[in-house]
Write a structure and sequence with these properties.
two-stranded antiparallel ribbon
């Protein structure tokens, strides 16, 4: 690369990093904790500070450890009321512990902002990888368009600012495929090392990292068939990847079998009745692995617990409810939660793949395969709670969009500019409420709850917005049905908790006449029994006096509505 091109690339990536971080930070500082964030944050802190892995073990701890690097609580528990094992701990008490740690003992926002910023750094890394991939394959201008589309993509912006494992695995999955592509074309030691590194990071960040195994395997097979790499190179790389990943798994669990220091007992997941009933075969396999101590106990039992809970989960789609989900849930979620400009370019990118299939099928396969694997797996899965579960497909969607620019609009940069501006305008319709984005095909974010809920829209992130509204309207008390794990009192909200309230709250009858605020997830009855759904159903068609962040509807009620 010539000096002028290096300078142009450096300036581009520096401007991107500043803009991306600004968009993420401004957004997340206006949001309260989402449902999962207290567990992720506390699990990371306990693992880093105490080498204790008994908190929320359903994910490997690397991304939580990373997020907790700047977390320094002022107060911590010296002990807990409940045993740190068994069904009561895993299903209830650990959530109470995390809630108290974050909102009762410490300044929650102070800890949240630090951990969220660490996660946002993965967003910068992913943008650099994305730009590099597109530039090396298609050139600078398609790469610039692709990077811009990435910067204004609401779903990616939303999850880059949250303490979860969803964005990290997205970054590492893309990094794995990027270096797989580089290795297939130029098998240098640097490219092999990049492939092994990102593959390993994916495995110690989220259990869905295992989906990269068929992607990498097929990519290497294609490279072997095309004689781009040698068999001994591929076998050596596989052996190194397996060894490094195995060592890394033990390393993130402090090279210890038991989940906590000075403890000689497991989390007791195999003894839980629900585990025995739902996944008996898997429980036996995990038991054998644990008995031979081939992997850390918390890693094995976390995987087993996650698979058990995945067999049955409340789901909501366009007014329908299910415990098993729908195969078409994620395709629909993708179509209505992705900006229309990106969808159009993505479709044209697929056309471009077909157009030049004979000349570039091997390279295009590495773009299409991850989309097929992650989307296909989600479609047969029973967890239908959020487009975040297919977030890893988005970078590949953007690369295909850049391919459309290269194939059809390279000489018509005005049309490419129109597409970019359209995508930016779509972001502007919802920013800073990025998580609540829905495209105009369904009428935008205020109509999102008619189709999806939970982490697609309302994940408990708008208590701060409700607090601001109450102050502006001089409302000193409100009846609140809040879906989330944040603490209303922490944000200055004086309230009575209604049905659907968090696990820590005492439900009471509403005090009327007065304001009633209901989270969209509760309003639609996603996790309520029929009686709870009937309680809120009359409010669905009622015009609210305010909508907070597209996720909380506020009503003035003179008398009981149920």
């Amino acid at each position: 690369m010539k000096l002028g091109e290096r300078m142009r690339t450096a300036i581009t990536l520096s401007a991107f990093a500043i803009l991306f971080l600004t968009l993420v930070v401004v957004s997340y500082t206006r949001k309260s904790a989402t449902w999962d964030e207290p567990q992720h944050l506390v699990a990371g802190y306990e693992a880093r500070a105490k080498h204790d892995y008994r908190f929320d073990p359903e994910h490997p701890p690397f991304l939580r450890l990373w997020a907790s690097l700047l977390v320094q609580p002022t107060r911590d528990f010296t002990n807990a009321d409940a045993a740190f094992k068994g069904v009561e701990w895993l299903m209830l008490h650990q959530f109470e512990y995390c809630h108290q740690f974050l909102f009762r003992l410490n300044d929650a926002d102070h800890l949240l902002y630090r951990a969220r910023f660490m996660n946002a750094l993965w967003g910068v890394l992913l943008g650099i990888l994305l730009f590099s991939f597109i530039r090396e394959r298609l050139g600078y201008w398609p790469a610039l368009v692709g990077l811009t589309l990435y910067t204004v993509e609401p779903n990616l912006l939303a999850h880059a600012g949250l303490i979860t494992t969803d964005f990290g695995i997205t970054c590492f999955a893309f990094g794995t495929v990027y270096f797989l592509w580089r290795t297939s074309n130029k098998p240098t030691l640097f490219n092999w090392a990049g492939l092994v590194l990102f593959f390993m990071l994916a495995q110690i960040s989220k259990f869905t990292g295992v989906l990269l195994v068929p992607v990498v395997a097929l990519g290497l097979i294609v490279a072997l068939v095309r004689k781009r790499i040698q068999l001994k190179q591929a076998l050596a790389a596989i052996a190194v990847a397996v060894a490094v990943t195995y060592l890394a798994i033990w390393a993130v669990y402090s090279f210890r079998y038991y989940p906590a220091p000075d403890v000689t007992e497991t989390l007791g997941v195999r003894e839980i009745q629900m585990v025995k009933e739902r996944v008996p075969q898997l429980a036996r396999i995990i038991g054998w692995i644990e008995n031979h101590r081939l992997l850390p106990s918390a890693y094995c039992e976390g995987f087993l617990l996650g698979q058990t809970k995945a067999q049955e989960r409340s789901a909501y789609l366009a007014g329908k409810y299910s415990l098993k989900g729908w195969w078409y849930f994620f395709p629909i979620a993708f179509l209505i939660k992705t900006p229309i400009a990106l969808l159009v370019l993505f479709t044209l990118g697929l056309v471009a793949c077909l157009w030049r299939w004979r000349t570039s099928w091997a390279d295009d396969l590495l773009l299409l395969l991850p989309i097929a694997v992650f989307m296909g797996t989600a479609m047969v899965n029973k967890i239908n709670i959020g487009v975040r579960h297919v977030l890893p497909i988005y970078p590949f969607v953007i690369v295909l969009a850049a391919m459309a620019i290269s194939e059809f609009f390279l000489r018509r940069r005005d049309l490419a500019l129109i597409a970019v501006v359209a995508a930016a305008i779509e972001l502007a319709t919802v920013y800073p409420d990025n998580l609540a984005f829905f495209n105009l095909s369904i009428g935008g974010p205020n109509h999102g709850a008619e189709y999806l809920a939970d982490s697609n829209l309302d994940w408990g992130q708008d208590l701060k917005g409700l607090s601001r509204w109450m102050k502006n309207q001089q409302v000193t008390f409100i009846n609140l049905s809040y879906f989330g794990t944040a603490e209303p009192v922490y944000y200055g909200i004086n309230c009575t908790h209604l049905p659907g309230a968090p696990f820590y709250a005492e439900v009471q009858p509403p005090k009327l006449p007065g304001y009633v605020a209901v989270s969209e997830t509760n309003l639609r009855g996603v996790y309520l029994e029929e009686a709870g759904r009937a309680f809120y159903r009359p409010l669905v068609a009622r015009e609210p006096v305010a909508i907070i962040g597209h996720t909380i509807r506020v009503y003035w009620m003179d008398k009981p509505w149920w």
